[in-house]
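Notes to self after the Tuesday call (sharing in case useful).
The group wants a holo model before anyone commits to mutagenesis around the pocket. I volunteered. Ligand is V47. Logging inputs and output together so the record is complete.
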Amino acid sequence: MPTCAPPRADARLDAIREKVLAGERLSIDDGMLLYETPDLWGVFELAGIVRNRLHPGVAYYNINRHLNYSNICALSCKFCEFYRKKGDDGAYTHDMDSIADEARKACESGATEIHVVGGLQPYLPFDYYTDLIRTIKRVAAEHGTDLHVKAFTAVEIVHLAKIAKKYKRDNRRESIRLILTELKEAGLGSLPGGGAEVFDDRVHDETHKGKIRSDEWLDVHMVAHELGLNTNSTILYGHVDNRRERLVHMEILRRAQDQALARLGYAGQEAGEETEGITAIAGIDAPVITLTRPGTPQTPTVSPRTNGRIPEPPKQSDASTSSTHSGYFQTITPLPFIPDGSELEHLPGPSGLENMRTIAIARLMLDNFPHVKAFWIMQTLPMAQIMLDAGADDIDGTVVWYDITKVGGSDTHQEVTVPVLRRAIREAGYEPVERDTLYRRVERDGNRWRVRSEP
Ligand code: V47
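Result:
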């Protein structure tokens, strides 16, 4: 009997489609099927359904500047091309004058955000980091504007606790809380998602031994959430990891987000099947909470649905839940491994299709994450454009200067202009929306900007 089905159509996706349409949580085995099916376009289409349910017709970008304050690092992660040792050629540390200069350039370009990360610098005192934040805030105020400081990966936060001599192995959450509180008082606005790599001990020991493990990375983000700081997340895949390990990573993030949303008052469904070890790793005790189920109130960052207003989270009988609306993961940014210049340079790195598939699967698995970012620096702008149809709703920003990875011979000056970003989004069929770090819409007149207030 002749069939009209395209040659790669996979009937096994039907059950997943039903779950996606009902907004039900996918299992790790569903994720494996999404990774293994030959029906790639079927996977992209499913991710597109979720993406367009959350962000119909729009895609986000921001005007930002990345600042790497030092590339001197106590660690030597095998996938990393960025780190140098003290005295090496090209080792650098910015002093406060040069930090102020970067902040000035950011203000003059109309940036809303400065994204600050660096190596685990053993020779700087803790005061350097609070001074860094205060300097950026001061320069912004002198320019009659503000810059959101999104700074320090979880690994750096633990390092800061250690150099501040506040790290207590038997009470590390408390140590992290002390450090984050001081940084927040200095003006820290949110945490970026880096340093997560792949939450798996084998991968950890093979590629980034010495770095904190997944449990401690999660501790930092969960304490940040408790303090009302929004954070981002990443997964750095395509080196020695396998696909199941990536899915477990996503499951761990999803459970941590369940906890953050429960604290904000979101009601959940009964917990699904537990994946062995995951609850123990994250110390998570929360119902399953999805944002993609039709009718679920959205987080403040999902602005088109809410017209920029912060929605009331669903009422809960437990009056002890937080009354604020912040303190959760905003986005997952899948980071494809860029081999160039690293100790793992002999590995090929993931293909473009594997990158698109991972973006799509992240969108489908992370049903309680408002945003999925295709970071153009690592994906390339042409791929990021296509990924907007495969689950991504954000391509990051103007960036300007980026030292951590250099794709195909690019150098540290990696910048796209706003017209190029907007045209890329339009060409992909979406309305470009400028956002701030917290995904609020921005209104601007040249370099002057403000967060749009909706009626
Ligand atoms: O922490 C290091 C990773 C991260 C390589 O939060 C590599 O909005 C690929 O986290 N190939 C930094 N990745 C980038 C990052 C990020 C970027 C954009 C936005 C946000 C956000 C976060 O890049 C590092 C590390 O995990 N990394 N080396 C490499 N060779």
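Two things stood out.
Residues 303-323 have pLDDT under 50 and may be disordered.
The chain is about 40% helix and 15% strand.
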